[in-house]
Amino acid sequence: MTSCENSNGDRPSEGQTRGSEGANILASLSHTRRPRSALVIGGNTGSDCVGFARFLSGDADVSLHSWVANVERLHAKKGLKFPEAACLGSGKTNTSEYPLLPQASLASVVCVEPLPSNFQVLQRAGRLGWNRIKFINAAVSRHIPPAGTIPFPSEFKFGFEEADMESFKAKRRNPKKPALVLEDIRATTIDELVFNDMNGDPPDILAIDTEGYDFECLQGAERVLATGKVHYIEFEFHKKGPWLHTKLEKAITFLNAYSYECYLAQPALVRLTGCWPW
Q: Alpha helix locations (H) across 10-131?
């Protein structure tokens, strides 16, 4: 995980140990005004979206435990179970409840998920008492294609997250694999989401988990980043999708232009900004 923070304020120390995502953000935003909003690109099971709603609102009743129970209760007839990797107490993940900011506030979280199977579950569960979170079915990228949509498979099970387009294309070309049923999903950019769906208010927190398309999403956020109002950004870096042929240096240099300092968020922070001085 890579985290980047607006450089107008106190900086964390290199080598500083950090814990959960919520704790990381709490530390990085200690020098700013109280954060009130988050935009999550790649909602998947909704766990991070709920975590940010809990963190920003300071409401202990907003929890991953209650979200998991709500999702499973609503879909009991279909036998839906929360993916084990996302469940608290499974012993196979570092997932934990996000911390609470002191003093409750009117926090808002926009949660964007492209896969129809995931979005349908999120939307239904979100209608019952989760009004802090707005769920949007859309695929985020650098540009909006002429058609205005991007095809995504409609039949994957809830919690599927290996949703990159190159994998879909490969499966469609493989005659031994059953044909994928595709659904056209709204294509958008972070800029369009903020200025059209969020009334032009940039989020305090921007979290991206798009299975390798993280930098593609960031490149579609230039107007938003130029406002200087996004205080904290996190995205994944690994060897999937476009990351296979895109160096992390390119993303860090891109964010440097908007006054962000970036760190590799391991157990101990590793400063990335300034590693490539040329």
A: 21-28, 47-57, 64-74, 116-126
SS3 for 2? strand
User: CB-based contacts of 248: which residues, under 8 Å, 6+ apart?
Assistant: 2, 237, 272
> Over the stretch 176-204, which tens digit does the pLDDT of each residue have?
666 678 899 999 999 999 999 999 999 99
Does residue 125 contact residue 12 with C-beta atoms inside 8 Å? Answer: no
Average confidence (pLDDT) over 114-133:
86
Report how far residue 129's alpha carbon sits from residue 228's, in angstroms, rounded to the nearest whole number. Answer: 32
Q: For 139-158, how does the pLDDT look when each residue is reduced to its tens digit (9 = 90+)?
A: 999 999 999 999 988 877 77
Cβ partners under 8 Å of residue 100, min gap 6: 54, 55, 58, 59, 60
Q: How far is CA 43 from the centre of its chain?
A: 6
According to DSSP, the β-strands at 2-6 and 232-235 are antiparallel
Predicted confidence band of residue 125 (pLDDT cuts 50, 70, 90): confident
Residue of 17, 270, 35, 213 lying closest to 261 (CA atoms): 270
Torsion angles phi and psi, residue 252, rounded to 5 = -65, -40
Pairwise CA distance, residues 278 & 269, whole Å: 23
Between helices 64-74 and 116-126, what is the axis angle to 10°? Answer: 100
81 vs 84: CA distance, rounded Å: 8
Residue 269: phi, psi to the nearest 5?
-65, 140
∠ at Cα 164 (162, 167), nearest 5°?
90
